Amino acid sequence: MRVLMFGWEFPPHISGGLGTACYGLVKGMVHHDQEVIFVVPKLWGDEEPLADFVNASDVTIDYREKKFKSIWKNLTYLEVSSFLVPYLGPEEYQKFTDYAIHDRADVDESIFTNKYQFSGKYGKNLMEEVSRYALTAAQIARDRKDFDIIHAHDWLSFPAGIAAKEISGKKLVAHVHATEYDRSGESVNPPVFEIEKAGMEAADHVVAVSQLTKNIIVNRYGIPAEKVSVLHNAVLDASIIKSKYEKKVPEKIVTFLGRITFQKGPEYFVEAAKKVMDRDDNVRFVMAGSGDLLNRMIDRVAELRMGHKFHFTGFLKGDDVDHMYAISDVYVMPSVSEPFGIAPLEAVRHNTPTIISKQSGVAEVLQNAIKIDFWDVDAMADAMFALLHYQGISKMFKELGSEELKNLKWEHVAAKLVKIYEKTLAQQP
Amino acid sequence: MRTICFYFQVHQPYRLKPYRFFDIGDDHYYWDDFLNRSVMRRVAQKCYLPMNALLLELIERHKGAFKVTFSFSGTFMDQMEAYAPDVLESFQRLVATGQVEVLSETYGHSLASLRSKEEFARMVDQHRDKIKQLFNGYTPKVFRNTELIYSDRIGEMVHDMGYTGILTEGAKHVLGWKSPNFVYQNSIRPELKVLLKNFRLSDDIAFRFSNKTWSDYPLTVDKFISWVNAIPKSEPVLNLFMDYETFGEHQWKETGIFEFMRALPEAVLSKTDFGFSTPSEVLGQVDAISPIHVPIPISWADEERDLTAWLGNDLQDEAFDRLYELEQTVRQLDDPDLIRDWNYLQTSDHFYYMCTKFFSDGDIHSYFSPYDTPYDAFINYMNVLSDFVLRIKQKKKEVESVE
After folding, report:
1. Integer Cα distance of B30 and B249 in angstroms
2. Among A79, B211, B321, B384, which one has the highest count of C-beta atoms within 10 angstroms of its own C-beta?
3. Which residue numbers delimit the Glycosyl transferase family domain (chain A) (predicted)?
């Protein structure tokens, strides 16, 4: 089978988890001898040659194609309501709105002729890039007729998937790695929500990274449950990591590692830490990462008078991340809403016993971990204490964790995906 | 004759190096030698060396009529020995003229007076020994606490340690309508005399000298003399207390601060009825006019003249409490390496860096801080303190196993 796949980033040039997941999926597909045409807004040239890569920045659009204009017209609503960027100055805002409300028919020619240089980032012109990406997708779908199905990853490439479908008449699979509800809680961004919804509605089938995400798709976006399949993520490398890095402090270490933002639930970790510390002197807590809640967490730690045993490392990169996992006795991911969450699997690879919130997709696949509600700080504290003191559980987690990882490989995921493709292609329109 | 008392605080903290969580239990050296050395050398070139030379010139020229007073923190003296022996030599020359008084203070420029009488006394003793050692057996008689922090209780402790006088801020909320230009006495121990900083005239030199938006800019010697002459005849003392780094470092030499100081003594002696004295002389010559009541500690910092630059927010209080939990154990162990770091960790500057009063005095704070934010300062300090605690535990174990 040959798949036309639209992504937004690909390793090594990634800024989020999306690129890593795409990489794993493509690798899995290659394992099963499936062909992938992978489109990204911008190619850097140092990507691993797993797929037939198409650089959207290199595509010249032939504007004589009549269908393109109708696609573009359908896309203009993105532009008009695209006040996604929060910190525009008043002048820029004025320019932005002038540009948006302008009748798009007037500027058709200039937009249609040139190649477009995508940044491929998550910047100020994100909405413009998303629309333009869709137009490029239409051109690619017209040039490359040699594919069986279209697969689009997350809302950024949903308009591209829709456009490719319209041009080629091929079926579309929309893959949801995260929804606007995960990113923003209840204060969703309406234009993003609209694109997500339009993409899922236009798709012939929707793939969600967890049951948790499927529930959101069904309940919040009104997509029929039978149209949505759950396809969990996996780990790129399931081997156990034996680190030589040694702990320098005598105490045990409980670690939070991730962005310090609302979504990740850092405040619950702090409160639970306090409860453990009151009972156990032989433990240190580490909050690794940075984010908009960092200073609030530092304040709270000082207020609770546990600064001598609760440490902040700032953003960790490279070896430091591995070192941190290696010296941790317990890893905690108290996410408030996590579509999947790959970090606990990394902890398992380091043989670190893990506590995860039930509000994370990874909780659906990882058996040998303690699962708690993110808000239940008493349960979280109990779990920390248990893993620190009762060798039985942590030993068992260590032994069974590696077994479990073997089942979490991308080739299994890809095999399931192929089945989903086959089912989708067999559907009567 | 009335008198002007010039007092300069000379202090440099031992700044911490960036100390990461991964360093805890592994790296027991906390100090940023490069930064400390380069600050010391920079200030030596811009301030200590040229200003010492100027003061020596003035003292020699006025033959006993011009005097100044210094206090040197222990952390400054240690760094001076390590990085700036030339500065030490020039201070020694100044003290040797006999026209210079040196004050007592805490070795670590610490806030110990607010927490522990025992630790406060130990630090004062250690400082006095250091002064003796560096300045040819000189023994200070008058006290000045870190950042001029003072309260009735602190005055009582200082008196009980054998001092006859103490310097502090002429804080508006303490003085009310009263003038700082008299000698006061401690309200618990009336034998202890209290000298108050005239903050208006002191800060005219220390802070406003080069401020072009100040209505009295530029400050000339004649203008300053006219303000000195405007002091009512009944008021006997003018206390001008400031950071020594005012000269050349806070006020660059381009502002004319050195020329101002070069011309000031002669103008004072010829155009006013003021002379110059050291605190000891003032205490001997001028009687106290009344007790001054300071139930809540004051200082010379910020607009509030209180302790909020160092203590009060959660970051500062947590760090301060955690530090002084160790007090008893550190003193019992009496290990020279631990005592050294214990002294340096108590320096008030570490707590100053954690101050979050961004809106009124934040700019001054950030000027003096090696950290981007108070939060960074807190994290770094607590990491170091965590390692220090581990060392203490380790040492304690060693000692107990020997016993």
Report:
1. 26
2. B384
3. 241-399
Diameter of chain B by CA atoms? 71
Contact B315 A286 (CB under 8 A): no
Tokens at A164, concatenated = 């490719």
Cβ B105 vs Cβ B71: under 8 Å: yes
* Nearest by CB: A307 against B21, B319, B373: B319
B38 to chain A, minimum CA–CA distance in Å? 27
- Local confidence pLDDT in tens for the 403 residues of chain B: 899 999 999 999 999 999 999 999 999 999 999 999 999 999 999 999 999 999 999 999 999 999 999 999 999 999 999 999 999 999 999 999 999 999 999 999 999 999 999 999 999 999 999 999 999 999 999 999 999 999 999 999 999 999 999 999 999 999 999 999 999 999 999 999 999 999 999 999 999 999 999 999 999 999 999 999 999 999 999 999 999 999 999 999 999 999 999 999 999 999 999 999 999 999 999 999 999 999 999 999 888 899 999 999 999 999 999 999 999 999 999 999 999 999 999 999 999 999 887 654 555 566 678 888 888 899 999 999 999 999 999 999 999 988 7
CATH class of the domain comprising A2-234+412-426 = alpha beta
| b/e per residue A41-72 (b: at least 16 CB within 10 A) | bbbeeebeebbbbbbbbebebebeeeebeebb
Q: Taking residues A198-209, report their average pLDDT.
A: 96
Encode pLDDT of A366-408 as tens digits. Answer: 988 999 999 999 999 999 999 998 888 888 888 888 888 888 8
- In what order do the strands lie in the sheet containing A228-230? A52-55, A35-40, A2-6, A149-153, A171-176, A205-208, A228-230
Q: Which amino acid is at B255?
A: T
> Are the Cβ atoms of A250 and B25 closer than 8 angstroms?
yes
Cβ distance B314 to A249 less than 8 Å, yes or no, reads no
> Could you tell me if A399 lies within 8 Å of chain B, comparing CB atoms?
no
* Containing structural domain, residue B375: 314-402
- Domains A2-234+412-426 and A252-406 agree in fold: yes
Q: Which residue ranges make up each domain of chain A?
A: 2-234+412-426, 252-406
Q: Is A248 on the interface with B (CB under 8 A)?
A: yes
Q: For the whole model, what pTM was predicted?
A: 0.82
Q: Hey, is the C-beta of A249 within 8 angstroms of any chain B C-beta?
A: yes
Which residues of B are catalytic, by number? 147
User: Which residues of B sit within 8 Å Cβ distance of A?
Assistant: 20-26, 313-315, 317-319, 321-322, 373, 375, 378-379, 382-383, 385-386, 389-390
Tell me the shortest Cα–Cα distance from B379 to chain A, in angstroms: 6
Residue B81 lies in a domain: yes
In this prediction, residue A15 has a pLDDT band, given cuts at 50, 70 and 90, of low
Q: What is the DSSP letter of B7?
A: E
In terms of domains, do B280 and B381 share one? no
Fold for domain A252-406? Rossmann fold (3.40.50)
Instruction: Assign residue B186 the CATH number of its domain.
Output: 3.20.110.20
Tally of structural domains, chain B? 2
Residue-averaged pLDDT of chain B? 94
What CA–CA distance (Å, rounded) separates B285 from B236? 10
Looking at the structure, tell me whether residues B182 and B228 fall in a common domain.
yes
For chain B, state the CA radius of gyration: 21
Q: What is the predicted ipTM?
A: 0.78
